[in-house]
Amino acid sequence: MPSNNNSNKGFGMANSDLGNHTTSVKDVKQLGIWAAIGSLGYVFWICGAMEMVERLAYYGVRQVSSLYATDAQSNGGLGLPGTEIGVIFLVWAMVQSFVPVLTGGISDRIGYKETIFASTVFKILGYLLMAWFPTFWGFMAGAVVLAFGTGIFKPGIQGTIVKATNRQNSSMAWGVFYQTVNIGGWIGPLVAAQLRQLEWQYVFYACAAIISLNFLLLLTYKEPDKEERLAYLAKVKSGEIKQENLAVDSLRELLNPIMIWYIVLFSGFWFMLMAFWDVGPLFFRDWVDTTVMVQHLFGPDGTDSRFWIFVLGMSADGTRIMPEGLVNINAMLIMFTCFLIAGWSALMKATNSMAIGTFLAATTLILFGSFNYVWIVVAGIVCFSIGEMLSSPKSSEYLGNIAPRQKKAMYLGFSQLPLGIGWMAEGYFGQTLYYKYGAIDTVARPALVEAGMSQADAAAIPIGEAFQRLVEFTGQSADVLTAQLYAANNVGKAWYIMAAVGIVSAAGMYVYGRWTYSLKEE
Questions:
Q1: Ordered structural domains, the chain, with CATH
Q2: Which of 224, 301, 473, 489 has the most Cβ atoms closer than 10 angstroms to its Cβ?
Q3: Whole-angstrom Cα distance, residue 438 to residue 419?
Q4: How much is the average pLDDT of 1-13?
Q5: Mean pLDDT score of the chain, rounded to an integer?
Q6: What span, in angstroms and rounded, lies between the C-alpha atoms of 466 and 137?
Q7: Which H helix or E strand runs over 97?
Q8: Nearest Cα to 442, choosing from 429, 454, 432, 452?
Q9: CA distances from 380 to 263, 335, 340, 361, 426 (A)
Q10: Cβ-based neighbours of 327, under 8 Å, separated by 6 or more
Q11: Quick check: 337 and 389 in contact, CB under 8 A?
Q12: Which residues contact 20 (CB under 8 A, 6 or more apart)?
């Protein structure tokens, strides 16, 4: 890596040698779609399978966590207000995102297989804690342990992907990888949608069982360049090569201005992505009438097909699509089309692709703030998914390509920092903003007072039950009251505030790209 007196030029703009490896962000001509896919080896697909299993279990819980936390205790949920959920999500994000900053370097040194095994053990324990202790602190403990396991898992898997690919197939590799793992991200919430209608705890037990499958896949995993890593460590042990303290080495890489600005700017993308996953289900549950979509697809009586009920994430009676079913359109689109978007993004500079993707994600949040008609919401989800496919895989490719050979997992661990900053900010502010401005439970309380209930009685209603109490108190239908409350309140305000973050980030990423690419001319 560059010396301190040449840090701006050295990080990816000039060449950086480690052994025979040369690192540069300068674009390399990519193979065609099918040639690139055909060039991907056995280890790549094993990693895709392990990530798919991990994402299936993770998103089985993650995508319904805000629904579980806000669901009334009488329904088996935690019955928590948005501010308390925000605290849990903030801590969850902090642990999951900052652990890889150190474990990435540890993975490079002790081996990817070993850290993947350890992560699986921690993740199982996290799911079980959530199932065993349905309280604020129980869910917090489970989230922290799960986050720790996820933080250990990511660098090893992503470091393997970098070493198993090359500059000619990296765009397609990351796109295909992102596509295959979204198979898990798609199936997990569908499983959760059905299990939670029986009992919330079944979701957590199922996810603990699912992640256990990675123990079997690990038996077939072989770390690329393991001999090179062991030879390098042998030289370190013999004193032939001096290896810096891991914390000092990581900090030096992090403090480069190009890395700092990458982290700051790309945090805005993750802020919006986590808002989609965390706040989106709450908005869909409260304000979006999915029976309209079901009637358009299946007729006025819905469907009794168990296939469509599962695949679309529908209620057991087949008359409406659950909130996680709408969110899951995102994973379904990525699962089927990401290799096509990857082929398109391979024609762009990485930073341009990320800027466009971030802007499309911001556009979606503006749509959510302006409309609650289900088909417009679906169009927004399609727009968001294209933005995600342009941004997220490209960011991993960008970091993987500029990382020195012996620091691949370290750099991919750094990729969790913008995710962590964005997620921490959204975890607290997203939940708080929505609970204050957009939650139907919040706006139903003053409506109860207007209808004649005392202020004290309205305030005493448990979290998650105020709207149902309004239905009972007024005798009006839920559909009529939902329409009245939506028209009378600025439900979209929270979405507009969050979209502004994305617009600023998209503009900043475009400028950042022009700056970094200009450095290679110096």
A1: 31-438+492-519 (1.20.1250.20), 442-488 (no CATH)
A2: 224
A3: 25
A4: 33
A5: 81
A6: 24
A7: helix 82-110
A8: 432
A9: 26, 17, 19, 9, 19
A10: 63, 189, 276, 277, 280, 281, 284, 381
A11: yes
A12: none
Distance (Å, whole) CA 151 – CA 404: 21
> Which residue, among 255, 218, 261, 496, has the nearest Cα to 369 in the 3D structure?
496
Burial of 234 (0-12, 13-18, 19+ CB in 10 A): exposed
Q: Tokens 């507009």 identify what position?
A: 496
3-state DSSP call for residue 23?
Answer: strand
| Residue 319 CB contacts under 8 Å (≥ 6 apart), including other chains | 291, 294, 301, 302
Q: Are 145 and 122 in contact, with CB atoms under 8 Å apart?
A: yes
* pTM listed for this prediction: 0.74
- Is residue 45 helix, strand or coil? helix
Q: Can you spell out the DSSP letters for 419-444?
A: HHHHHHHHHHHHHHHIIIII-HHHHH
- What pLDDT is recorded for position 521? 46
DSSP 345-414: HTTS-HHHHHHHHHHHHHHHHHHHHH---HHHHHHHHHHHHHHHHHHHHHHHHHHHHHS-GGGHHHHHHH
Residues 286-292 have a mean pLDDT of 94
**What is the rounded distance in angstroms from the CA atom of residue 301 to the CA atom of residue 317?**
10
Residue that has been written with the tokens 């919430």 in this structure: 189
d(CA 431, CA 439): 10
pLDDT tens figures, 423-435? 888 888 888 899 8
Residue 489 CA: distances (Å) to CA of 186, 439, 482: 33, 10, 11
Question: Please, which residues have CB within 8 angstroms of residue 379's CB and are 6 or more apart in sequence?
Answer: 367
Buried b (16+ CB within 10 A) or exposed e, 31-60: bebeebbeebeebbebbbbbbbbbbbbbbb
